[in-house]
UniProtKB/TrEMBL annotation:
It is a multi-pass membrane protein. Belongs to the EamA transporter family. The keyword Mitochondrion does not apply. PANTHER family: INNER MEMBRANE PROTEIN YTFF, OS03G0707200 PROTEIN-RELATED. Keywords: Cell membrane, Membrane, Transmembrane, Transmembrane helix. It comes from Georgenia ruanii. The chain crosses the membrane at residues 31-52, 64-86, 92-112, 119-137, 149-169, 176-198, 210-229, 241-259. Its main location: membrane. It is found in: Cell membrane. This is EamA family transporter.
Length: 305
């Protein structure tokens, strides 16, 4: 019960990253938002890691090539593309495209980690892909040949490709304390992005709404979601936890309705197909499997949204 509640809360906060991220990029450019997010999150992450994991920071630093690769793909690259996408598309649309990520990870794991696809996995990828196409075409699948993707759609597709790379790198990386590793990645991200943000002029929130959006993003999706997610993984297997990630799209849809924004039938239908497809990729056969399947939850990696 506690583990389930922790996972629900974690996904709720990650959904908030889409909704309030859209508010924040109305006042700050994506690079400034990434810099300020991880600058504010770094100290709490270090403190929590020290209290809960007591990591050997020097030993962690010896794995710097892995930390740099994870930082540039996950914390920097994914979030830069996500926030740039939110300048051009709705939070719900972005979350729907993002929901295809577990299926894409399944394909990447088969290609790069030599993990075999099950029939359920292949079927799930196909169903999820159809769902994404329904969203991108606004339900007009017959117009697929003449489809012109918007900037937000292209950026969000780029974001899930980068997140897939982050996940594959994470699975090849040595086992590291998850919260301490996230803190180290936040530090690397800050060092890598701050000079560019300062050179271009660091944007700050212009009003209370922008400031509170930034504070929420820095503390809840960046710190508390990671803490709750990894706490839950101590008592629930990662495969079961991964299914909870589908709630990000559900919570984003609810927030969209509560904010008075319209939901279109194509979005709802596409979302149902994407979630159904991801559920199929996470399905485990009742008999002992003949082939390995990919954990949609990304092992001990938190979502990082």
């Amino acid at each position: 019960m506690v583990a389930g509640s922790s996972l629900v809360a974690a996904t709720l906060f990650w959904a908030g990253n889409y909704v309030l991220g859209a508010v924040a990029v109305g006042q700050m450019d994506p690079l400034s938002l990434v810099v300020l997010r991880w600058a504010l999150a770094l100290v709490p992450l270090v403190i929590i890691a020290q209290l809960t994991e007591r990591p050997d920071w020097r030993r962690l630093a010896r794995h710097w090539p892995w930390l740099v690769a994870l930082s540039l793909t996950g914390l920097a690259g994914y979030n830069l593309l996500l926030y740039a996408a939110l300048e051009h598309t709705s939070p719900f649309n972005a979350s729907l495209i993002n929901a295809f990520a577990p299926a894409l990870i399944l394909l990447a794991a088969a290609a790069f980690l030599r993990q075999r696809l099950t029939l359920w996995g292949v079927g799930g990828v196909v169903v999820a892909l159809v769902g994404v196409l329904v969203v991108l075409t606004d339900g007009a699948l017959g117009d697929l040949a003449s489809l012109e993707l918007g900037a937000g759609d292209l950026l969000m597709i780029g974001a899930i490709v980068v997140w897939t790379a982050y996940t594959i790198i994470g699975r090849r990386a040595p086992a590291l304390p998850p919260i301490a590793s996230t803190a180290a990645q936040a530090a690397v991200t800050l060092v890598a992005t701050l000079p560019f943000a300062l050179a271009g002029g660091l944007d700050l929130p212009r009003d209370a709404g922008g400031a509170w959006s930034l504070v929420f993003i820095a503390l809840f999706p960046s710190v508390l979601s990671y803490l709750l997610w990894n706490r839950a993984l101590t008592v629930i297997e990662a495969g079961r936890a991964g299914v909870y990630l589908n709630l990000i799209t559900v919570f984003t849809a609810l927030a969209t309705v509560l904010m008075g924004q319209p939901l279109h039938l194509a979005q709802v239908l596409g979302g149902v197909l994407v979630l159904a497809g991801v559920a199929l990729t996470s399905r485990r056969p009742s008999a002992p499997p003949l082939a390995d399947t990919v954990d949609a939850g990304g092992g001990t990696q938190a979502r990082g949204a």
